[in-house]
Amino acid sequence: MRAIVRDTYGDADVLHLADVPKPTIKPNEVLVRVTAAGVDRGAWHAMTGLPQIARLGFGLRRPRNPVIGLDLAGVVEAVGRDVTDFKPGDEVFGEGSSSWAEYAKAKQHRLLHKPAHLTFPQAAVIPTSAATALHMLLLAPSAPTPPGRDVLVIGAGGGVGSFAVLLAKAHGDTVTAVCSTGKVEAVRGFGADRVIDYTREPLTGSYDLIVDIAGNRSLAQLRALLKPRGILSIAGGEQGGRFFGGLERNLQALAISPFLKQTLRAPVVIAKRADLAALTSIPSPLQRTYPLEEARTAMHNLATGQVTGKIALTL
């Protein structure tokens, strides 16, 4: 089958199209014929091997698995003998493994039937980014949150940030969104009540919740924008050194939070089926799609900040 692979770590130039064996599924797994695959920062980390601590999972010297990608949407090709929720021919979306390929496998509890109103690319960009935004906003189905909060989203032009704006507005919150000049109009289109171009305007205000995906502001700077009992949710790890990649800030937040009236969080999110179900009714921030063979261009555009919202690969 065709797949996008990388044999070593590096920038988008290491990606290339190759023929690889079709996955073999276990009894509790589903084989999906991929129609669309999501492109996100997780794939960038897997491609570059950064931060280097992530190579404990990816492979120390070279990638253990040459095919990257988690998010997918497609049609069930086959099911393991223990799978009861899906059958061949079902349209599904969710998180699998090695999704930048014609076929990918996934555990059945990580998949959901694709609603008819979503295209395959729209469904494919939901799992990782939207579930992360959902949990950063404290809107997961298991934790109901009253509406009406003052929410600041930093990095609102990216994948997680665009979903955060859409979800917060759908929840009934007042949203201030922060992004670069070229993304202002698109972020305003996501429904933000106020958009701050950080290259021209300082961050001001006082917020119940700050969602920071940009990763380049100190905890002290962010806490100064929080109300006395506000909540800070941080993610991202592209701004620090090569080994930890900014994760030091996440660890620091978790370490000092028990001693503060403010709450500092750095959630690690794996999309659950209940999350996916809660995410299918919001508008899609999908910007454009690329054919599988143009994965290198798609990843280059993502890495250089040329993408607003989400992009997907199509097969």
TrEMBL record:
<dbReference type="InterPro" id="IPR036291">
    <property type="entry name" value="NAD(P)-bd_dom_sf"/>
</dbReference>
<feature type="domain" description="Enoyl reductase (ER)">
    <location>
        <begin position="10"/>
        <end position="313"/>
    </location>
</feature>
<dbReference type="Pfam" id="PF08240">
    <property type="entry name" value="ADH_N"/>
</dbReference>
<dbReference type="InterPro" id="IPR013154">
    <property type="entry name" value="ADH-like_N"/>
</dbReference>
<dbReference type="InterPro" id="IPR011032">
    <property type="entry name" value="GroES-like_sf"/>
</dbReference>
<dbReference type="InterPro" id="IPR051603">
    <property type="entry name" value="Zinc-ADH_QOR/CCCR"/>
</dbReference>
<dbReference type="InterPro" id="IPR020843">
    <property type="entry name" value="ER"/>
</dbReference>
<keyword id="KW-0521">NADP</keyword>
<dbReference type="Pfam" id="PF13602">
    <property type="entry name" value="ADH_zinc_N_2"/>
</dbReference>
<protein>
    <submittedName>
        <fullName>NAD(P)-dependent alcohol dehydrogenase</fullName>
    </submittedName>
</protein>
